[in-house]
Prior knowledge:
Blueprint: E1 4-7, E2 13-16, H1 28-31, H2 57-74, H3 78-84, H4 92-96, E3 106-107, E4 110-111, H5 115-128, H6 130-150, H7 153-164, E5 170-173, E6 189-193, E7 196-207, E8 214-221, E9 227-233, E10 239-243, E11 255-266, E12 270-271, H8 281-312, E13 314-315, E14 318-319, H9 324-352, H10 358-382, H11 394-406, H12 411-423
Parallel strand pairs: 5-8, 6-8
Antiparallel strand pairs: 1-2, 3-4, 6-7, 7-11, 8-9, 9-12, 10-11, 13-14
Amino acid sequence: xxxxxxxxxxxxxxxxxxxxxxxxxxxxxxxxxxxxxxxxxxxxxxxxxxxxxxxxxxxxxxxxxxxxxxxxxxxxxxxxxxxxxxxxxxxxxxxxxxxxxxxxxxxxxxxxxxxxxxxxxxxxxxxxxxxxxxxxxxxxxxxxxxxxxxxxxxxxxxxxxxxxxxxxxxxxxxxxxxxxxxxxxxxxxxxxxxxxxxxxxxxxxxxxxxxxxxxxxxxxxxxxxxxxxxxxxxxxxxxxxxxxxxxxxxxxxxxxxxxxxxxxxxxxxxxxxxxxxxxxxxxxxxxxxxxxxxxxxxxxxxxxxxxxxxxxxxxxxxxxxxxxxxxxxxxxxxxxxxxxxxxxxxxxxxxxxxxxxxxxxxxxxxxxxxxxxxxxxxxxxxxxxxxxxxxxxxxxxxxxxxxxxxxxxxxxxxxxxxxxxxxxxxxxxxxxxxxxx
Length: 437
Protein backbone atom coordinates (compact mmCIF):
# COMPACT_ATOMS: atom_id res chain seq x y z
CA UNK A 1 0.00 0.00 0.00
CA UNK A 2 1.44 3.37 -1.01
CA UNK A 3 1.59 6.16 1.58
CA UNK A 4 1.68 9.66 0.10
CA UNK A 5 3.78 12.38 1.74
CA UNK A 6 3.11 16.08 1.72
CA UNK A 7 4.96 18.96 3.40
CA UNK A 8 3.57 20.86 6.38
CA UNK A 9 3.89 24.65 6.58
CA UNK A 10 6.91 24.29 8.88
CA UNK A 11 8.76 22.11 6.38
CA UNK A 12 8.10 18.81 8.14
CA UNK A 13 6.49 15.98 6.21
CA UNK A 14 3.14 14.39 6.97
CA UNK A 15 1.82 11.12 5.61
CA UNK A 16 -1.57 11.10 3.97
CA UNK A 17 -3.72 8.28 2.67
CA UNK A 18 -5.16 8.44 -0.85
CA UNK A 19 -8.70 9.79 -1.00
CA UNK A 20 -10.26 6.50 -2.04
CA UNK A 21 -9.54 5.08 1.41
CA UNK A 22 -12.11 7.51 2.79
CA UNK A 23 -15.00 6.63 0.49
CA UNK A 24 -18.21 6.18 2.48
CA UNK A 25 -19.62 2.66 2.62
CA UNK A 26 -22.36 1.65 0.26
CA UNK A 27 -25.85 1.77 1.67
CA UNK A 28 -26.83 -1.78 2.55
CA UNK A 29 -29.79 -1.65 0.17
CA UNK A 30 -27.31 -1.03 -2.67
CA UNK A 31 -24.57 -3.33 -1.43
CA UNK A 32 -27.01 -6.18 -0.84
CA UNK A 33 -30.24 -5.56 -2.78
CA UNK A 34 -31.60 -9.10 -2.46
CA UNK A 35 -32.98 -8.71 1.08
CA UNK A 36 -34.66 -5.87 2.98
CA UNK A 37 -32.71 -4.51 5.99
CA UNK A 38 -34.28 -4.11 9.43
CA UNK A 39 -34.58 -0.33 9.01
CA UNK A 40 -37.81 -1.29 7.24
CA UNK A 41 -39.09 -3.69 9.86
CA UNK A 42 -40.79 -6.91 8.76
CA UNK A 43 -44.41 -7.63 9.67
CA UNK A 44 -45.02 -9.86 12.67
CA UNK A 45 -45.19 -13.53 11.65
CA UNK A 46 -44.46 -15.20 15.00
CA UNK A 47 -47.93 -15.54 16.58
CA UNK A 48 -48.44 -18.98 15.08
CA UNK A 49 -50.69 -20.27 17.88
CA UNK A 50 -52.77 -17.07 17.80
CA UNK A 51 -51.79 -16.23 21.36
CA UNK A 52 -53.16 -12.72 20.92
CA UNK A 53 -56.50 -14.35 21.73
CA UNK A 54 -55.28 -14.58 25.34
CA UNK A 55 -55.17 -10.78 25.59
CA UNK A 56 -57.93 -8.36 26.45
CA UNK A 57 -59.11 -5.77 23.95
CA UNK A 58 -57.23 -3.07 25.87
CA UNK A 59 -54.04 -5.14 25.89
CA UNK A 60 -54.26 -5.75 22.14
CA UNK A 61 -54.80 -2.02 21.57
CA UNK A 62 -51.72 -0.93 23.51
CA UNK A 63 -49.70 -3.67 21.81
CA UNK A 64 -50.68 -2.34 18.38
CA UNK A 65 -49.92 1.24 19.38
CA UNK A 66 -46.44 0.38 20.64
CA UNK A 67 -45.67 -1.81 17.62
CA UNK A 68 -46.56 0.96 15.18
CA UNK A 69 -44.39 3.49 17.01
CA UNK A 70 -41.39 1.19 17.24
CA UNK A 71 -41.54 0.16 13.61
CA UNK A 72 -41.98 3.73 12.39
CA UNK A 73 -39.78 5.74 14.76
CA UNK A 74 -37.09 3.38 16.05
CA UNK A 75 -36.36 0.76 13.39
CA UNK A 76 -34.95 3.32 10.87
CA UNK A 77 -32.36 4.64 13.35
CA UNK A 78 -31.53 1.75 15.69
CA UNK A 79 -28.55 0.35 13.75
CA UNK A 80 -26.86 3.76 13.56
CA UNK A 81 -27.25 4.48 17.26
CA UNK A 82 -26.31 0.93 18.26
CA UNK A 83 -23.12 1.14 16.22
CA UNK A 84 -22.22 4.51 17.76
CA UNK A 85 -23.25 3.39 21.26
CA UNK A 86 -25.27 6.59 21.64
CA UNK A 87 -28.80 7.17 22.86
CA UNK A 88 -31.43 8.72 20.53
CA UNK A 89 -32.68 11.38 22.91
CA UNK A 90 -34.95 12.87 20.26
CA UNK A 91 -37.28 9.85 20.45
CA UNK A 92 -37.94 10.14 24.19
CA UNK A 93 -41.02 12.38 23.69
CA UNK A 94 -42.41 9.86 21.20
CA UNK A 95 -41.90 7.02 23.67
CA UNK A 96 -43.46 9.18 26.38
CA UNK A 97 -46.54 9.73 24.24
CA UNK A 98 -47.18 5.97 24.25
CA UNK A 99 -48.12 6.23 27.94
CA UNK A 100 -46.39 3.01 28.95
CA UNK A 101 -43.89 4.40 31.49
CA UNK A 102 -45.05 3.47 34.96
CA UNK A 103 -46.62 0.28 33.64
CA UNK A 104 -48.83 -1.17 36.35
CA UNK A 105 -48.75 1.89 38.64
CA UNK A 106 -52.17 3.42 39.16
CA UNK A 107 -52.66 7.16 39.67
CA UNK A 108 -50.06 9.94 39.64
CA UNK A 109 -50.37 10.19 35.86
CA UNK A 110 -49.31 6.57 35.37
CA UNK A 111 -51.11 4.27 32.91
CA UNK A 112 -52.27 1.61 35.39
CA UNK A 113 -51.84 -1.22 32.90
CA UNK A 114 -52.39 -4.85 33.80
CA UNK A 115 -49.12 -6.67 34.34
CA UNK A 116 -49.88 -8.57 31.14
CA UNK A 117 -50.41 -5.30 29.29
CA UNK A 118 -47.17 -3.90 30.65
CA UNK A 119 -45.30 -7.10 29.75
CA UNK A 120 -46.46 -7.16 26.15
CA UNK A 121 -45.46 -3.52 25.68
CA UNK A 122 -42.00 -4.52 26.89
CA UNK A 123 -41.93 -7.33 24.33
CA UNK A 124 -43.09 -5.04 21.52
CA UNK A 125 -40.35 -2.51 22.26
CA UNK A 126 -37.73 -5.28 22.50
CA UNK A 127 -38.93 -6.84 19.23
CA UNK A 128 -37.52 -3.83 17.40
CA UNK A 129 -34.78 -2.75 19.80
CA UNK A 130 -33.69 -4.36 23.06
CA UNK A 131 -31.84 -1.26 24.25
CA UNK A 132 -35.00 0.86 24.17
CA UNK A 133 -36.82 -1.80 26.17
CA UNK A 134 -34.04 -1.78 28.78
CA UNK A 135 -34.20 2.02 28.95
CA UNK A 136 -37.94 1.80 29.74
CA UNK A 137 -37.57 -1.17 32.09
CA UNK A 138 -34.95 0.54 34.27
CA UNK A 139 -36.88 3.80 34.34
CA UNK A 140 -40.32 2.27 34.83
CA UNK A 141 -40.21 -1.21 36.38
CA UNK A 142 -37.31 -0.48 38.72
CA UNK A 143 -36.99 3.21 39.60
CA UNK A 144 -40.62 4.31 39.28
CA UNK A 145 -41.94 1.13 40.84
CA UNK A 146 -39.64 1.52 43.85
CA UNK A 147 -41.10 4.97 44.49
CA UNK A 148 -44.65 3.70 43.90
CA UNK A 149 -44.35 0.64 46.18
CA UNK A 150 -41.99 1.95 48.85
CA UNK A 151 -42.06 5.74 48.68
CA UNK A 152 -44.04 8.22 50.74
CA UNK A 153 -47.16 9.88 49.40
CA UNK A 154 -45.21 13.13 49.04
CA UNK A 155 -42.54 11.36 46.99
CA UNK A 156 -45.14 9.78 44.72
CA UNK A 157 -46.78 13.13 44.12
CA UNK A 158 -43.45 14.84 43.55
CA UNK A 159 -41.73 12.39 41.21
CA UNK A 160 -44.13 10.01 39.49
CA UNK A 161 -46.13 12.39 37.22
CA UNK A 162 -43.11 13.75 35.34
CA UNK A 163 -41.46 10.32 35.25
CA UNK A 164 -44.63 8.83 33.75
CA UNK A 165 -44.42 11.28 30.86
CA UNK A 166 -40.66 10.77 30.43
CA UNK A 167 -40.18 14.47 31.11
CA UNK A 168 -37.67 13.39 33.71
CA UNK A 169 -35.64 10.16 33.56
CA UNK A 170 -34.71 7.81 36.39
CA UNK A 171 -32.16 5.09 37.04
CA UNK A 172 -31.89 2.39 39.73
CA UNK A 173 -28.63 1.66 41.52
CA UNK A 174 -28.16 -1.63 43.37
CA UNK A 175 -25.21 -3.43 41.74
CA UNK A 176 -21.70 -2.54 42.86
CA UNK A 177 -18.23 -3.34 41.47
CA UNK A 178 -17.70 -6.03 44.14
CA UNK A 179 -21.29 -7.25 44.44
CA UNK A 180 -23.42 -8.37 41.52
CA UNK A 181 -25.21 -11.65 42.22
CA UNK A 182 -24.46 -11.16 45.92
CA UNK A 183 -26.20 -7.78 45.88
CA UNK A 184 -27.39 -7.99 49.49
CA UNK A 185 -23.74 -7.64 50.61
CA UNK A 186 -23.43 -4.15 49.09
CA UNK A 187 -20.93 -1.76 50.71
CA UNK A 188 -22.31 1.70 49.90
CA UNK A 189 -23.10 3.35 53.23
CA UNK A 190 -25.70 5.82 54.44
CA UNK A 191 -24.86 7.71 57.63
CA UNK A 192 -27.50 9.76 59.45
CA UNK A 193 -26.72 13.43 59.97
CA UNK A 194 -28.82 16.47 60.86
CA UNK A 195 -31.53 16.90 58.25
CA UNK A 196 -30.55 13.94 56.12
CA UNK A 197 -28.00 11.31 55.19
CA UNK A 198 -24.47 11.12 53.83
CA UNK A 199 -23.94 8.47 51.13
CA UNK A 200 -20.52 7.04 50.35
CA UNK A 201 -19.81 4.31 47.84
CA UNK A 202 -19.85 3.16 44.25
CA UNK A 203 -22.35 1.56 41.86
CA UNK A 204 -21.69 -0.10 38.51
CA UNK A 205 -23.66 -1.13 35.41
CA UNK A 206 -26.43 1.35 36.17
CA UNK A 207 -28.56 1.87 33.04
CA UNK A 208 -29.69 5.43 32.22
CA UNK A 209 -27.38 6.80 34.92
CA UNK A 210 -25.33 9.07 32.67
CA UNK A 211 -28.34 11.25 31.88
CA UNK A 212 -30.86 10.42 34.61
CA UNK A 213 -32.47 13.30 36.49
CA UNK A 214 -33.32 11.07 39.44
CA UNK A 215 -31.18 8.23 40.84
CA UNK A 216 -32.76 5.62 43.12
CA UNK A 217 -29.83 4.31 45.17
CA UNK A 218 -29.59 1.54 47.77
CA UNK A 219 -27.13 1.82 50.64
CA UNK A 220 -26.37 0.14 53.95
CA UNK A 221 -27.53 2.06 57.02
CA UNK A 222 -24.38 2.64 59.10
CA UNK A 223 -26.38 2.30 62.31
CA UNK A 224 -28.80 -0.59 61.66
CA UNK A 225 -26.68 -2.38 59.02
CA UNK A 226 -29.88 -2.81 56.98
CA UNK A 227 -30.40 -1.77 53.34
CA UNK A 228 -32.18 1.57 52.84
CA UNK A 229 -33.29 3.38 49.68
CA UNK A 230 -32.64 6.99 48.67
CA UNK A 231 -33.50 9.40 45.85
CA UNK A 232 -30.56 11.47 44.62
CA UNK A 233 -30.75 14.39 42.19
CA UNK A 234 -28.32 14.38 39.27
CA UNK A 235 -26.62 17.63 40.33
CA UNK A 236 -25.95 16.56 43.93
CA UNK A 237 -22.47 17.65 45.12
CA UNK A 238 -20.10 14.71 45.42
CA UNK A 239 -21.95 12.65 42.79
CA UNK A 240 -19.99 11.56 39.71
CA UNK A 241 -21.35 9.40 36.86
CA UNK A 242 -19.23 8.14 33.97
CA UNK A 243 -20.19 5.98 31.02
CA UNK A 244 -19.04 2.36 30.72
CA UNK A 245 -17.46 1.91 27.30
CA UNK A 246 -16.71 -1.04 25.01
CA UNK A 247 -19.87 -3.10 25.51
CA UNK A 248 -20.79 -5.72 22.91
CA UNK A 249 -24.50 -5.69 23.76
CA UNK A 250 -27.28 -3.18 24.56
CA UNK A 251 -24.94 -0.56 23.14
CA UNK A 252 -27.63 2.11 23.00
CA UNK A 253 -28.18 1.78 26.76
CA UNK A 254 -26.01 4.24 28.65
CA UNK A 255 -24.65 2.17 31.53
CA UNK A 256 -22.60 4.06 34.06
CA UNK A 257 -20.27 3.92 37.03
CA UNK A 258 -21.65 5.99 39.91
CA UNK A 259 -19.27 7.30 42.54
CA UNK A 260 -20.64 8.97 45.68
CA UNK A 261 -18.31 10.98 47.88
CA UNK A 262 -20.12 12.50 50.85
CA UNK A 263 -23.34 12.97 48.90
CA UNK A 264 -25.99 14.60 51.09
CA UNK A 265 -29.56 13.33 50.73
CA UNK A 266 -32.27 15.23 52.67
CA UNK A 267 -34.62 13.25 54.92
CA UNK A 268 -37.48 13.89 52.50
CA UNK A 269 -35.66 11.82 49.87
CA UNK A 270 -35.07 8.77 52.04
CA UNK A 271 -37.46 6.06 50.72
CA UNK A 272 -39.20 5.15 53.95
CA UNK A 273 -40.52 1.79 52.77
CA UNK A 274 -37.06 0.31 52.12
CA UNK A 275 -35.76 -0.95 55.45
CA UNK A 276 -34.08 -4.21 54.43
CA UNK A 277 -32.91 -6.01 51.34
CA UNK A 278 -36.17 -7.96 51.35
CA UNK A 279 -38.04 -4.75 50.57
CA UNK A 280 -36.39 -4.71 47.15
CA UNK A 281 -38.05 -8.07 46.43
CA UNK A 282 -41.42 -6.39 45.91
CA UNK A 283 -39.89 -4.43 43.06
CA UNK A 284 -37.75 -7.24 41.66
CA UNK A 285 -40.75 -9.59 41.52
CA UNK A 286 -42.41 -7.34 38.96
CA UNK A 287 -39.25 -6.34 37.10
CA UNK A 288 -38.18 -9.96 36.69
CA UNK A 289 -41.46 -10.67 34.92
CA UNK A 290 -40.83 -7.68 32.68
CA UNK A 291 -37.28 -8.85 31.97
CA UNK A 292 -38.63 -12.27 31.01
CA UNK A 293 -40.68 -10.60 28.28
CA UNK A 294 -37.67 -8.81 26.78
CA UNK A 295 -36.15 -11.99 25.27
CA UNK A 296 -39.63 -12.96 24.09
CA UNK A 297 -39.84 -9.75 22.10
CA UNK A 298 -36.26 -10.04 20.86
CA UNK A 299 -36.95 -13.58 19.64
CA UNK A 300 -40.10 -12.42 17.86
CA UNK A 301 -38.08 -9.79 16.00
CA UNK A 302 -35.40 -12.31 15.07
CA UNK A 303 -38.00 -14.73 13.73
CA UNK A 304 -39.82 -12.02 11.80
CA UNK A 305 -36.56 -10.90 10.20
CA UNK A 306 -35.52 -14.45 9.29
CA UNK A 307 -39.00 -15.26 7.96
CA UNK A 308 -38.82 -12.37 5.48
CA UNK A 309 -35.13 -12.83 4.68
CA UNK A 310 -35.47 -16.50 3.76
CA UNK A 311 -38.18 -15.67 1.25
CA UNK A 312 -36.16 -12.87 -0.34
CA UNK A 313 -32.66 -14.34 -0.40
CA UNK A 314 -32.00 -16.79 -3.25
CA UNK A 315 -29.23 -19.34 -3.65
CA UNK A 316 -28.87 -22.29 -6.03
CA UNK A 317 -31.81 -20.99 -8.02
CA UNK A 318 -34.35 -20.95 -5.16
CA UNK A 319 -35.30 -18.89 -2.10
CA UNK A 320 -33.60 -20.07 1.09
CA UNK A 321 -37.08 -20.68 2.50
CA UNK A 322 -37.48 -23.57 0.04
CA UNK A 323 -34.67 -25.61 1.60
CA UNK A 324 -35.44 -28.24 4.23
CA UNK A 325 -32.68 -27.23 6.63
CA UNK A 326 -33.89 -23.61 6.59
CA UNK A 327 -37.44 -24.68 7.38
CA UNK A 328 -36.22 -26.96 10.17
CA UNK A 329 -34.40 -24.12 11.92
CA UNK A 330 -37.18 -21.63 11.31
CA UNK A 331 -39.82 -23.93 12.82
CA UNK A 332 -37.57 -24.67 15.80
CA UNK A 333 -37.38 -20.92 16.41
CA UNK A 334 -41.14 -20.60 16.02
CA UNK A 335 -41.79 -23.38 18.53
CA UNK A 336 -39.48 -21.73 21.04
CA UNK A 337 -41.39 -18.48 20.74
CA UNK A 338 -44.80 -20.09 21.27
CA UNK A 339 -43.55 -21.80 24.44
CA UNK A 340 -41.82 -18.64 25.68
CA UNK A 341 -44.97 -16.57 25.27
CA UNK A 342 -47.06 -19.13 27.14
CA UNK A 343 -44.60 -19.22 30.05
CA UNK A 344 -44.47 -15.41 30.14
CA UNK A 345 -48.26 -15.15 29.98
CA UNK A 346 -48.66 -17.66 32.80
CA UNK A 347 -46.19 -15.70 34.93
CA UNK A 348 -48.36 -12.63 34.51
CA UNK A 349 -51.50 -14.51 35.51
CA UNK A 350 -49.81 -15.98 38.58
CA UNK A 351 -48.76 -12.49 39.61
CA UNK A 352 -52.22 -11.05 39.04
CA UNK A 353 -53.77 -13.78 41.21
CA UNK A 354 -51.19 -13.30 43.97
CA UNK A 355 -49.78 -16.80 43.45
CA UNK A 356 -46.44 -15.98 41.84
CA UNK A 357 -43.41 -16.92 43.93
CA UNK A 358 -39.78 -15.82 43.52
CA UNK A 359 -39.07 -19.27 42.14
CA UNK A 360 -41.74 -18.87 39.48
CA UNK A 361 -40.28 -15.55 38.33
CA UNK A 362 -36.72 -16.86 38.37
CA UNK A 363 -37.54 -20.00 36.38
CA UNK A 364 -39.45 -17.94 33.85
CA UNK A 365 -36.62 -15.47 33.39
CA UNK A 366 -33.85 -18.08 33.23
CA UNK A 367 -35.64 -20.54 30.94
CA UNK A 368 -36.93 -17.90 28.56
CA UNK A 369 -33.51 -16.28 28.15
CA UNK A 370 -31.99 -19.71 27.50
CA UNK A 371 -34.51 -20.41 24.74
CA UNK A 372 -34.00 -16.92 23.33
CA UNK A 373 -30.27 -17.51 23.11
CA UNK A 374 -30.94 -20.68 21.15
CA UNK A 375 -33.36 -18.83 18.88
CA UNK A 376 -30.83 -16.08 18.20
CA UNK A 377 -28.13 -18.63 17.37
CA UNK A 378 -30.42 -20.34 14.86
CA UNK A 379 -31.31 -16.99 13.32
CA UNK A 380 -27.67 -16.08 13.01
CA UNK A 381 -27.06 -19.36 11.13
CA UNK A 382 -30.00 -18.77 8.79
CA UNK A 383 -28.71 -15.37 7.70
CA UNK A 384 -25.25 -16.65 6.81
CA UNK A 385 -22.79 -13.79 6.34
CA UNK A 386 -25.50 -11.22 6.97
CA UNK A 387 -25.96 -12.81 10.38
CA UNK A 388 -23.03 -10.73 11.61
CA UNK A 389 -24.39 -7.41 10.31
CA UNK A 390 -26.47 -5.22 12.58
CA UNK A 391 -28.33 -3.99 9.48
CA UNK A 392 -30.28 -7.25 9.42
CA UNK A 393 -31.15 -7.16 13.17
CA UNK A 394 -30.07 -10.68 14.10
CA UNK A 395 -26.43 -9.85 14.90
CA UNK A 396 -27.51 -6.92 17.06
CA UNK A 397 -30.18 -8.99 18.80
CA UNK A 398 -27.68 -11.84 19.28
CA UNK A 399 -25.37 -9.47 21.17
CA UNK A 400 -28.18 -7.70 23.04
CA UNK A 401 -29.38 -10.98 24.51
CA UNK A 402 -26.08 -11.57 26.30
CA UNK A 403 -26.47 -8.85 28.97
CA UNK A 404 -30.16 -9.75 29.37
CA UNK A 405 -29.11 -13.36 29.98
CA UNK A 406 -27.00 -11.97 32.84
CA UNK A 407 -28.84 -9.05 34.45
CA UNK A 408 -31.72 -9.32 36.94
CA UNK A 409 -30.02 -12.52 38.06
CA UNK A 410 -27.81 -14.69 35.88
CA UNK A 411 -29.17 -17.95 34.50
CA UNK A 412 -27.34 -19.84 37.26
CA UNK A 413 -28.48 -17.62 40.13
CA UNK A 414 -32.11 -17.69 39.00
CA UNK A 415 -31.88 -21.46 38.69
CA UNK A 416 -30.64 -21.67 42.28
CA UNK A 417 -33.52 -19.47 43.48
CA UNK A 418 -35.98 -21.91 41.95
CA UNK A 419 -33.92 -24.84 43.22
CA UNK A 420 -34.08 -23.49 46.76
CA UNK A 421 -37.83 -23.15 46.48
CA UNK A 422 -38.46 -26.68 45.23
CA UNK A 423 -35.96 -28.45 47.54
CA UNK A 424 -35.95 -26.22 50.66
CA UNK A 425 -32.13 -26.15 50.49
CA UNK A 426 -30.19 -23.00 49.68
CA UNK A 427 -27.04 -23.68 47.65
CA UNK A 428 -25.76 -20.19 46.85
CA UNK A 429 -22.65 -20.38 49.00
CA UNK A 430 -20.03 -23.12 48.55
CA UNK A 431 -19.74 -25.74 51.25
CA UNK A 432 -16.89 -24.89 53.60
CA UNK A 433 -13.75 -26.77 52.66
CA UNK A 434 -12.75 -29.47 55.09
CA UNK A 435 -9.36 -29.04 56.65
CA UNK A 436 -6.79 -31.46 55.36
CA UNK A 437 -5.77 -34.29 57.66
